[in-house]
Amino acid sequence: MILYDYPRAPNPMRVNLFINEKKLEVKRKIIDLSKHENLKPKYLKINPWGTVPFLVVKKRVITESIAICKYLDSLSPISPNLFGTSPIQKAIIEMYRRKIEFDGMQATGEAFRNSAKSFKGRAFAGTAKIPQIPELIDRGKVRTEIFFNFLNKTLKNSKYVAGKKFSIADIDAYVTLSFAKWIKIDGTNKRKYVTNWKVNLEKRKSFIKYNKLFR
After folding, report:
1. How many separate domains does the chain show?
2. Does 80 fall in a domain?
3. Are 122 and 131 in contact (CB under 8 A)?
4. Is there a domain that residue 82 lies in?
5. FRET pair for 154, CA 20 to 30 Å: which of 104, 112, 117, 192?
């Protein structure tokens, strides 16, 4: 089993934090996105989607960060269970996680990929040649700010995003917070509850381990 990884990027960050929380050991191969290595023939032969991260298991390829997390979770279903245990808990966590993904991560990505020079002609992840649309930059930034207002309101009455228990929803929200810096948005600005939550998360061993990679 090999994880093809680039820890600095948002989606690989999700998987790395998940692995750290689960205390798993996974063999990795770094693909340098800054050099567009993910689009080189030798990697496209393995993963034609041209995205990172992806996990190779017995010659099978698993792409998409949450799919990878769920596979790894099935290998180690013991605590901590980051997707929930009871039916209602699983549903609530997934409800918030999807909200974060659509309203937070995608909004930030919309602004970033339509503004970054390195993504000229590649406004969507993958191999397709899709032109950037400058008008989507401001819309993406507005959507991102709206998302952080939602997050702040949610955390006003809850220790973690989906309730009293740390979950994959917190990982996704934290990744969005970090990703937003790429479009010069500080999600903690004038948002006390997001700030307190962030400080709390960064005390966790899994987050300390991840953040040490870039010091």
Report:
1. 2
2. no
3. no
4. no
5. 112
Domain stop point among 15, 40, 75: 75
Domain that holds residue 188: 87-214
148 and 92 in a single domain? The answer is yes
Give 77: exposed, middle or buried? Use CB within 10 Å, 0-12, 13-18, 19+.
exposed
What is the three-class DSSP state of 118? helix
Burial class (CB in 10 A: 0-12, 13-18, 19+), 192: exposed
CA distance 90 to 157: 20
DSSP letters of 19-65? HHHHT---EEEE--GGGTGGGSHHHHTT-TT--S-EEEETTEEEESH
How far is 103 from 107, CA to CA, in rounded Å? 6
> With bands split at pLDDT 50, 70 and 90, how would you rate the model's confidence at 47?
very high
Residue 66 token pair: 């949450």
Check if the beta carbon of residue 53 is closer than 8 Å to that of residue 15.
yes
- 81 within domain boundaries: no
50-68: per-residue pLDDT in tens? 999 999 999 999 999 999 9
